[in-house]
Protein: Bifunctional lysine-specific demethylase and histidyl-hydroxylase
Organism: Chelonoidis abingdonii
Amino acid sequence: MSKKGGKQTETGREVHVPCKRAKVEASCPSSPMNYDSPDSVFESLIFPIEQEKFFKEYWEQKPLLIQRDDPSVAAYYQSLFQLMDLKELSSQGLYYGRDVNICRCMNGKKKVLNKDGKVNYMQLKRDFDQKKATIQFHQPQRFKDELWRIQEKLECYFGSLVGSNVYITPPGSQGLPPHYDDVEVFILQLEGEKHWRLYKPTVHLAREYNVESEDHIGNPTHEFILKPGDLLYFPRGTIHQADTPLGGSYSTHVTISTYQNNSWGDFLLDAIPGLVFDTAKENVDLRTSIPRQLLMQVDIADSTRRLSSFLRSLADRLENTKELRSSDMKKDFIMNRLPPFLGNSSDPLAPGGKLPKLDSKIRLRFKDHAIITVEPDQDNSEELRKEMVYVYHSLKNRRERHMMGNEDDDTSEEGISETHGLRFPLSHMDALKQIWRSATVAIKELSLKSDAEKENLVLSLWAECLIEVI
């Protein structure tokens, strides 16, 4: 594949800075990451760009390149993942396709060079050295604690799933053809150097992955070399390709991605059905039958006018609605996200503090890892099911399954991922909101009729490790 070199094109926003230091982790070199909060993690990731400036000028708009000349940051980035890590990980049972892809860009197309079954490190290294193949390692946060720690905090920050992939490319080679993705991308250069070219999107904020022919994408809008410690961000839809320069070392980078299927359009698709269902209970017009043979007609112009009227009435109702049902998106996020990072401890979570009593004060333990939804009673098979409050959480999610899809050991008999949480009567909603919105709350002040209800509620939350007594 031809490599477009020549003169250096516009680099957009380019920042050359030493990265500030924050926490020092025992398990890695001096760390530039500040783990005090999700906000501080993202702030240290994009330093020196301020969060407000980033979201105002770059997010979903244009690429951002941050080049850092700081050996300590480069050393920290290298500790996140290295080629040599694959030797040990291969011995743990990696599989082609599921965990590792071997590929190379040839004549503008991606050629997959996977073997069958388990990954053998020596064979993997031979393909890397002799076939100049790129190694793509899926979701390294399943194995690398520091990436787990970063991505778990970023999931709290964005309120969206955050995945990652590692790409290791030998010198003089390219793994993937020009393409664009359906995710917001943050690239951290870990080892070696990578030559990047970015192009004007053909589909802004794309909803799907697509390969683009180099003949149709024009000249790069940005062209640069990423070095260890550098960070690159670009929005979904940005056409890009990258190769490892000939004559140097191999390149390793990790791509951290988020906001897949997390647009206003997705939220509307999720929320509108519940809104229609609730409105139809009160509006008889929505309960009237559609015209005879409507589903058999080609021209439905008359019906679209009626639908427009219904949509306007839904919009009016929405203006006065304080809560929307977005159960599917919420549940998908909470069921599939990373569990909290608990340091080096491999012990399971245990209830915090002493057993709660009526005169106790409590506080939420993992607010970012729990959601409250209102849904029909899932344990009631009757046709008319009453609504219940469900509290779902990710405290028992399995790190090793993060972003890997559903497999047999993770699904129920119906093929649905297992959820972790609790179910309460609808009358408990106000009390739950008190707990979620308050820094601390006295159990006896909860908005429930009886002391027994108050104690039963907090005991259930406490046993599930969602609250602690203070």
User: Anything to note?
Assistant: DSSP finds eleven helices and 20 strands in the chain.
